[in-house]
Amino acid sequence: MKKKLTEKQQKELAFMKDWILIVHEYIFKNDEDILEVDKLCIIKAFEIGEIRGMRMAFNDTLDMAKDLSYAQKEELNAILREKFGTDLNEQNNKNYKKIKRVIQRGKIKTDEEYYLLKERIDEIYDDESKREEVEELGTLLLNYENSKRV
What we know:
The protein is an all-alpha fold.
């Protein structure tokens, strides 16, 4: 049985659903099949209150948007600012702040934090100037994985 979501979590879930649908509609506008399946999955996750999965999908969506051209990002950001009052850059900054808090704490507490750090490693892995950060994040991920096995 699923745990009942708080009012704050319900608002977060609704925000993520709407955000993901708009971004995916923009990214997949030329592929109706992917868009239709995508919509069904997101709406189903929303309906059953799958907040963890929706958070992961939200972060994946932010990651997908990184592959857009500068002009496409600007166009999408204008749409997002009009609808939500925030854009890709602000959401990515929020995630980076969360990552910094986990690093300062020295411990991953949730699966959401785990996946956030994992995505950060994927993002910076090839950047030699970020090697120390990659190692630090890798240690945190490994410690979390080991704690889940016990």
